[in-house]
Amino acid sequence: MTALRGLAAWTGPVLVGTLTTRVAAGAPDAPMLVLAVVVAPLVALLQPPVDDAPHAVSAVATGVSATLILAASFVPLGDAAVLLGGRRWHGVVLASALLVLLAVTPGADRWRSAALLIGGAALVLGLLTLASATGRSPLMAWREAAARPALVFSAHSPWVTDGGWFARRATLAFDEGHRMVAVAAATFRVVEHDGKSEVVRDWRLAAGDPLSVRPGDRVTVEAGSRVRFEAGKRVPGAAASGAAWADAGVSPLVGSVAALITLVLGAVGLVPAAGRRGFAAPATLLVVALAATGWGVFAVATAPEVMLSGSVAEPLLRVSSAVPGARAFAPLGVLALLALFVAAAGALRERVTSLAGVRGTMAWLTAVALAAVASLWPFDPWFLLMAGLGVAAATLAAPRLAGAGGARVAGWPVHALGALGGGVAFVAAVALGPRLPVALGVVAEWPVLLAAPAAWLIVKLLR
Amino acid sequence: MSAARWRWFGMVALTLLLVPPLLLSLVPGAPGAVRVAGVSVTWWYAGLIAPTLATVLATAVLVRSPK
Description:
The complex is a heterodimer. In chain A, a hairpin with a 2-residue loop joins β4 (186-194) and β5 (197-205). Chain A folds into 2 domains: 3-144 and 244-377; 158-237, Jelly Rolls (Sandwich). The longest helix of chain A is centred in the first third of the chain and has 28 residues, at 56-83. A 4-stranded antiparallel β-sheet of chain A has the order 1-8-3-6. Chain A has a 4-stranded antiparallel β-sheet with strand order 2-7-4-5, with no helix packed on it. Chain A has a two-stranded antiparallel sheet with strand order 9-10. Chain A is globular, with a radius of gyration of 23 Å. Chain A contains 18 helices and 10 strands. Chain A has helices at residues 3-7, 13-25, 30-46, 56-83, 88-104, 111-134, 138-146, 158-161, 242-247, 253-270, 280-302, 314-322, 331-356, 360-374, 381-401, 414-432, 441-445, 448-462; strands at 164-165, 170-173, 178-182, 186-194, 197-205, 210-213, 218-221, 226-228, 408-409, 412-413. By secondary structure, chain B is mainly α. Chain B has one domain (3-63). Chain B has helices at 3-16, 19-26, 41-63; strands at residues 35-36, 39-40. In chain B, β1 (35-36) and β2 form a beta hairpin. The radius of gyration of chain B is 15 Å and the shape is elongated. The chains are: A alpha+beta, B mainly alpha. The A-B interface holds A 3, 31-32, 34-36, 38-39, 42-43, 45-48, 139, 142-143, 146, 246-248, 250-251, 253, 256-257, 260, 264, 273-276, 278-279, 282-283, 285-286, 289-290, 293 and B 3-4, 7-8, 10-11, 14-15, 17-18, 21-22, 25-26, 30, 32-33, 35, 37-40, 42-43, 45-48, 50-52, 54-55, 57-59, 61-63, 65, 67.
């Protein structure tokens, strides 16, 4: 596997879309995420090559991890189908059919590196188009966004004209009075502040019914709801101002460290070591990450409401449409999503089939089917991605970094025993999470903090 | 230096690039929010300088890796 082909597993649509969305939202963890998205797979590319004999435990761990990451990758494509006027299952079925076709077509693997380059080129071309159409470089767009007194809906926003669509359940906090209009029948939970107490009301609205909210109210919107907002009003949930967006704030240290461990170890488990000629991969990764960040900057400068739906696909689909002069290039966002998906799925397929032996194709098709079905639910793709990376970190990376060599215990390779221990610890942390003491809440939220050291220790003690 | 040790050196150096933003978040007075040319120090580091450094470092380690 060349470095570029192996790297494709990392630069999937979820990671790229999440990067864009977090930057656009001014999330406190956005700067660290940009850095980690570049550094984590580079650490993986530099890892010394290992020649651990394939084992059933490692094969199952790889399959579980790949299925979770693939399910995460399906979600933005399902979201994109809805945003383009179709149904979620249209996008998922189309993407599944594409993967099945590539799996049964001889020589289709040749397209994987090309797909990554096409996806990256589409991101860069889209960014250049935005820069050209707005007459601003990303740095100028940043300064302009940071100088905005408030992030508001424009009169041309689809959230104002036709009504926006919520990909996931969301709770919106309003800093000013607002009049929302339900585009389709839906139920909204409004938490009103009445002096020192809170009043909770559930409103069942028919299509066209308005809902007036006051400053300080919180509205919970169910996944799939369609809502119109007023032009010129602040985007609920967005940063209070451009300056607040640019500051990004500070994210909690423990959560940041846990996310970094998951990303770095997950990458080590997922992305194979590069050879001496793998120098194109780091540069490609940097270009993709910076382009995704640039999209996020232009998103907040031109259409700050694109992160409202909760879909990581929306910025890539809607930002070009919001900029006069760039509308003709809006399909570049779809092309980038699709190409990065094909590249990522191809890399995951190679990981699964190389460990599954003669049943490789069947194992891969099973993973595709499971992932496609899971993605029909409005799961948060970031949650699925972090779960997949967490499994890879605990079962593949930690035993590998402990350096089992060829040691065996009772006929079992030590790296497989480490993977088994890590997997059991991961599942236990997830299952027992709600019952753990508050002090161990971070383990429930980030099971890799328990599972990866457990796997590492098992290998160290047994080898 | 063996190839494996050379690569471990690269992995550790890359991982160390992740540390400064974490330390900046602990320092009182939010020095990471200081603006330079309109962009905060944290964003300059995490969004451009460190990723570029990491890319150069990883490329150098790969290309100059002992056989």
